[in-house]
């Protein structure tokens, strides 16, 4: 049996923290009778009347207890697959053999089962429960539940967002009773979409079970059915809407009282009690509204000061006394023009997308402690916002976010595409309304619940449907703001949305040059509501194979295991950690520049990264600085990341990052500030230092007050570079004095160098007979084969790394995740570099050809090694050195040579390589036959990628995201 996680607090969490006060509770945690219903015969054969044949422990899932099927090539997964090469590639044949199945598309569960399963438990109802209302509470059941008490069916529920609560009052009597639950995790009845993160194997997995609190709860027959709190900051009061229900046989008359007290702040506040008389006729409900005034000590909630109150609601009569406690925050999250406002102060969303990654359990956490760890980690990276992609987390997440201070955007549990569509009368249309209403009722009081989307990237008659959806919610509940769905840039705009989560206005346009001057002003001007960038980043990093050992729960990282072995098979197993770190440094550089571009754009509403953490599915999308466990990978810390992603960030407009010594370095300094207070009488300072830390120059700008805003002008600086005599890397750092906020940028300076060919080197662009003769005589050859590569011609390299991953996007370029550079080699003595692609490599690397070294010696390592997509693991080179015959050669598929004069870095690298070649240090380790090198420009690669799949993601389908109905 797989180790069970986090049992100790699962059951009590809801009752201690969700604000329901019960008279008595019977926990149903523990062993249950169990049986799989593979043939859907349980209902017709009345399994609720028999003892089930197996056992399982709840809360938990079937897979945790090895219930279900072994993984095979015929396992029927829940999720789209756009790359079937795994099933056909000869090199992957061994991973398709029984006993060695390695699925590359997502993490592999211990067992897999989609269908009906039955759970059964006997419980003794005490005598003193007579006359009480009894509710069976099932937190986070997946998906459809049907309940029987003894031989009587109670009903069916299928919520993916809220607890399944069954009123068993009419079915239970004192004594021993049998409760039977049938759970079906198929999605064919209400299809939310197989890729929805609420159900898909891409993320949490399509599990079967119940993973939160499970209990029988008792209530008085007259009870508080619902309590909703609506803060009114302007008038220092809260509007409290209460729904009373009377299930007794008598009319009820009594008093209701409300009061609130803060509980998590250094400052305390308490309201006076408000009392009113109430009555409820038997068998009916009564809704009442009360106003709760606050005094001058009222505390407000935001990301900086997440002050919370407990509202106590008491119902009292001679016969009945009951109460309910609700947690809430006094806050108003509104929209003013194209800005989000928290309590009247502009706020810019700096978010990540949570995709329901839970690699130990395979299902969402239901304890506050677990969510607090995750949310504190997210906040340590300078973020203040989380979007839940096509799913809604359990209540514990809202409680934790309230405490930590994060703005949440849960979504309807649907990606209505790749199967279902909205606005066509399919079951998903009604289901999304029902689900979001359940979300508002169960979680609507939590201060962190500030935004709501109906789901992700729909198909169908989407504009009409989503306009009506937004209008419905704007009229119904003003405590948060509403958008249609979170979408990419080609989806139609929903005009009635209060804000937009949308692609199209994101990314780095680094095809022609590198700079940090441009912003997105022109693109967002056409939108008059807050614009939040949809899923920015998606910059890939090489797998961290050390992560494999973390999978001690219900999942195994068979995808990582396959990628690791394939890397070993391609003779690069020893380079895995170097590939991770080198690609990771480039990934962080890209996120830094994209985030800064957004922060310097006036009126930009915010962004949602995809993501801070890795996405385990859709082919394995390693796009995060953190792994799927929300833990660091080793190449960037929270302190480093939060220098350019925070509530206050110094920014610099820099036209380029590579200079000659006869130029002047210039920068316009800006500030992003989104805090609860202005920066008053603040000095911004700057320094320029060399790589050793030696100060070259410094300055500061006059003290002034900075209000909230993006791209606030601070001042400009310039620094003449003529004092610099040697090639080097330099650093501009800008600080906000009196705070911890600082940011920095590297730039490179090269003296003027001559690039004519040294006489002792034969420079050529063709591996001709003269080159062969020079090598045969012990000479030196520099071979520039830019544009002439055949073996590796199919591998596209840009400076920016792989987007999302090459499997999901059917090997759409680029295919390379940065470069590993042998920076300690004397070849780079005159070209200062680290071991990874930094900005000075752009004019060398971007769109350069690579060479596939598949026929080279196993231990051959190039000077500059592009890092291939881990789905192919081709051994690549941009520049390599070798002994050939009696001679020595350097081969470059980057355009390096005397004719390259307008690219400073390319020119400098050629100069450095030539100096190396004429030095005594030029002594290549490996011997390579002339014919092996020559074959790079003659024969194609032996293995060429084929997806074997006709279908593709929406982004690869022309006009697929419009209102077309198939």
Automatic annotation (TrEMBL):
Domain Glycoside hydrolase family 2 immunoglobulin-like beta-sandwich stretches: 222-331
Q: What range(s) does the Glycosyl hydrolases family 2 sugar binding domain occupy?
A: 27-216
- Entry's EC annotation: 3.2.1.23
* SUPFAM superfamilies the UniProt entry points to: (Trans)glycosidases, Galactose-binding domain-like
Q: Which UniProt keywords apply?
A: Glycosidase, Hydrolase, Signal
Signal peptide range in chain numbering: 1-21
Keyword Hydrolase set for record: yes
Name the domain of life this protein comes from: Bacteria
Q: What class of enzyme is it?
A: hydrolase
Q: Which reaction equations make up its catalytic activity?
A: Hydrolysis of terminal non-reducing beta-D-galactose residues in beta-D-galactosides
One of this protein's Pfam families, by short name?
Glyco_hydro_2_N
User: InterPro entries of this UniProt entry?
Assistant: Bact_Beta-galactosidase, Galactose-bd-like_sf, GH, Glyco_hydro_2_N, Ig-like_fold, Ig-like_GH2
What is the similarity comment for this entry? Belongs to the glycosyl hydrolase 2 family.
Annotated protein name in UniProt: beta-galactosidase
Q: Which organism is it from?
A: Flavobacterium flavipallidum
């Amino acid at each position: 049996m797989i180790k069970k996680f986090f049992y100790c607090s699962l059951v009590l969490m809801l009752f201690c923290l969700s604000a329901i006060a019960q008279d008595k509770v019977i926990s149903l945690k523990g062993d249950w009778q169990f049986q799989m219903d593979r043939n859907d015969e349980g209902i017709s054969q009345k399994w609720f009347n028999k003892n089930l044949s197996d056992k399982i422990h709840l809360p938990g899932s079937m897979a945790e207890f090895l219930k279900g099927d072994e993984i095979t090539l015929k396992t029927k997964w829940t999720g789209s697959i756009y790359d079937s090469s795994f099933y056909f590639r000869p090199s992957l044949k061994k991973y398709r053999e029984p006993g060695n199945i390695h699925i590359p598309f997502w993490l592999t569960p211990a067992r897999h089962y989609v269908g009906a399963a039955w759970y059964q438990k006997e419980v003794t109802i005490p005598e003193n429960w007579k006359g009480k209302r009894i509710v069976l509470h099932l937190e986070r059941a997946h998906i459809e539940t049907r309940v029987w008490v003894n031989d009587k069916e109670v009903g069916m529920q299928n919520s993916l967002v809220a607890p399944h609560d069954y009123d068993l009052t009419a079915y239970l009597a004192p004594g021993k009773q049998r409760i039977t639950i049938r759970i079906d995790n198929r999605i064919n009845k209400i299809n939310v979409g197989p890729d929805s993160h609420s159900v898909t194997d891409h993320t949490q997995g399509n599990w079967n079970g119940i993973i939160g609190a499970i209990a029988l709860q008792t209530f008085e027959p007259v009870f508080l059915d619902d309590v909703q709190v609506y803060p009114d900051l302007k008038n220092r009061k809260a509007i409290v809407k209460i729904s009373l229900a009377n299930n007794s046989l008598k009319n009820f008359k009594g008093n209701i009282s409300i009061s609130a007290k803060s509980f998590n702040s250094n400052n305390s506040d308490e309201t006076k009690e408000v009392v009113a008389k109430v009555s409820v006729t038997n068998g009916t409900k009564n809704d009442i509204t009360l106003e709760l005034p606050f005094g001058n000590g009222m505390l407000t909630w935001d990301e900086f000061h997440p002050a919370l109150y407990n509202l106590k609601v008491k119902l009292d009569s001679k016969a009945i006394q009951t109460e309910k406690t609700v947690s809430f925050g006094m806050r108003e999250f509104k929209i003013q023009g194209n800005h989000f406002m928290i309590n009247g102060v502009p706020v810019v969303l700096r978010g990540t997308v949570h995709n329901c990654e839970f690699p130990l359990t395979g299902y969402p956490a239901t304890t506050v402690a677990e969510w607090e760890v995750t949310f504190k980690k997210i906040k340590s990276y300078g973020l203040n916002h989380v979007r839940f992609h096509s799913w809604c987390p359990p209540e514990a997440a809202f409680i934790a976010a309230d405490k930590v201070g994060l703005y949440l955007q849960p979504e309807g549990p649907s990606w209505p595409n790749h199967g279902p569509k909205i606005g066509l009368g399919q079951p998903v249309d009604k289901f999304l309304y029902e689900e979001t209403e359940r979300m508002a009722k169960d979680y609507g009081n939590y201060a962190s619940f500030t935004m709501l989307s109906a789901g992700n990237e729909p198909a169908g008659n989407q504009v009409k449907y989503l306009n009506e959806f937004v209008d419905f919610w704007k009229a119904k509940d003003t405590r948060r703001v509403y958008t249609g769905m979170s979408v990419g840039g080609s989806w139609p705009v929903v005009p009635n949305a209060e804000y937009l989560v949308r692609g199209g206005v994101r990314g780095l346009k680094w095809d022609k040059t590198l700079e940090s001057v441009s912003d997105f002003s022109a693109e967002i001007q056409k939108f008059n509501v807050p614009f939040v960038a949809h899923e920015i980043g998606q910059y890939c990093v090489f797998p961290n194979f050390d992560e494999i050992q973390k999978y001690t729960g219900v999942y195994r990282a068979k995808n990582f295991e396959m990628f690791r072995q394939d890397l070993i098979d391609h003779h690069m197993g020893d380079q895995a950690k170097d590939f991770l770190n080198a690609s990771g440094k480039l990934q962080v550089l890209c996120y830094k520049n994209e985030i800064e571009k957004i922060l310097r754009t006036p009126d930009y509403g915010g962004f949602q990264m995809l993501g801070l953490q890795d996405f385990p599915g859709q082919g394995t999308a390693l796009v995060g600085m953190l792994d799927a466990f929300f833990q660091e990978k080793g190449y960037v810390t929270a302190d480093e990341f939060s220098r350019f992603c925070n509530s206050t960030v110094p920014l610099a407009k820099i036209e380029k990052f590579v200079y000659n010594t006869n130029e002047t370095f210039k920068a316009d300094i800006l500030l992003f500030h989104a805090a609860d207070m202005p920066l008053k009488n603040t000095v911004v300072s700057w320094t320029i230092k060399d790589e050793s830390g030696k100060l070259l120059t410094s300055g500061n700008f006059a003290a002034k007050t900075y209000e909230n805003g993006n791209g606030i002008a601070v001042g400009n600086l310039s620094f003449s570079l003529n004092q610099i005599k040697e090639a080097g890397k330099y650093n501009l750092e800008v600080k906000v004095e009196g705070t911890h906020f600082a940011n920095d940028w590297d730039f490179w300076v090269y003296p003027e160098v001559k690039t004519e060919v040294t006489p002792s080197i034969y420079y050529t662009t063709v591996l001709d007979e003269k080159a062969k003769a020079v090598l045969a005589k012990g000479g030196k050859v520099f071979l520039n084969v830019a544009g002439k590569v055949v073996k590796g011609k199919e591998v596209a390299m840009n400076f920016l790394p792989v987007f999302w991953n090459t499997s999901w996007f059917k090997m759409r370029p680029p295919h390379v995740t940065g470069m590993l550079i042998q920076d300690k080699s004397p070849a780079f003595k005159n070209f200062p570099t680290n071991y990874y692609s930094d900005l000075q490599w752009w004019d060398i690397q971007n769109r350069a050809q690579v060479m596939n070294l598949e026929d080279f010696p196993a231990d051959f390592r190039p000077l500059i090694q592009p890092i291939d997509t881990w789905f192919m693991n081709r051994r690549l080179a941009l520049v390599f050195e070798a002994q050939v015959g009696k001679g020595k050669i350097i081969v470059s598929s980057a355009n390096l040579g005397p004719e390259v004069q307008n690219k400073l870095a390319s020119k400098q690298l050629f100069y450095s390589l030539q100096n190396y070649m004429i030095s005594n240090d030029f002594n290549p380790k490996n011997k390579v036959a002339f014919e092996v090198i020559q074959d790079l420009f003659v024969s194609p690669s032996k293995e060429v990628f084929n997806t074997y799949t006709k279908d593709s993601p929406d982004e690869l389908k022309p006009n697929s995201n419009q209102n077309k109905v198939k």
